[in-house]
Amino acid sequence: MECELCDFNSPRIIKEYKYWKLSAAAQTPLGWTHAMLKRHVSFFDELTEEELAELKQVIKDVRGALDKLWKPDWFNVTQLGNSNPHLHVNLIPRYKEKREFAGKTFEDKTFGSGVESEELSEDIVEKVRERLRD
Ligand SMILES: [Zn+2]
């Protein structure tokens, strides 16, 4: 079976961990990242204790970086896998009010409920990556 996340090696990757790769998503809300497991399993309950412990660290790192950059008001952690069954976790910052970044205004219109997402241009995603890597 072909799986594009099994050998995901995109410039979108911000940081590589022992078991996970962290990448910036090309979509809003501002600062949305994906934690992708480096081996192909599909479900959360297939994670080893070590992978689970490291995911906790990944989440901690992302929340720390986002708190410094844009101070999200809430944070969603979801495992969906609807478009690709390779386990990846969506780390989605949520904002009560607008944020300005890279000359663009970001508004999280569905704060307090689901996610309404907007595709981002590559130059903005690159700027998001740069800031998160710092
Ligand atoms: Zn895979």
Topology:
Elements (H helix, E strand, L loop, with lengths): L12 E4 L3 E5 L8 E5 L11 H21 L4 E5 L9 E7 L4 E3 L2 E3 L15 H12 L1
Antiparallel strand pairs: 1-2, 2-3, 3-5, 4-5, 6-7
Low-confidence stretches: none
What is the alpha-carbon Rg in Å?
14 Å
Give the CATH architecture: 2-Layer Sandwich
* Count of DSSP strands: 7
Mean pLDDT: 93
Helix content: 10-25%
Bound molecules: zinc ion
User: How many structural domains in the coordinates?
Assistant: 1
Strand content: 15-25%
Which CATH class is shown? Alpha Beta
Written account of the structure:
It is built from 2 helices and 7 strands; from the N terminus they run βββαββββα. It starts with 12 loop residues before the first strand and ends with a helix. It has helices at residues 49-69, 122-133, and strands spanning 13-16, 20-24, 33-37, 74-78, 88-94, 99-101, 104-106. It has 134 residues and is an alpha+beta fold. The chain has one domain: HIT-like (HIT family, subunit A). The longest helix is centred in the middle third of the chain and has 21 residues, at 49-69. The protein is 25% helix and 24% strand. Zinc ion is lined by residues 3, 5-6, 40, 86.
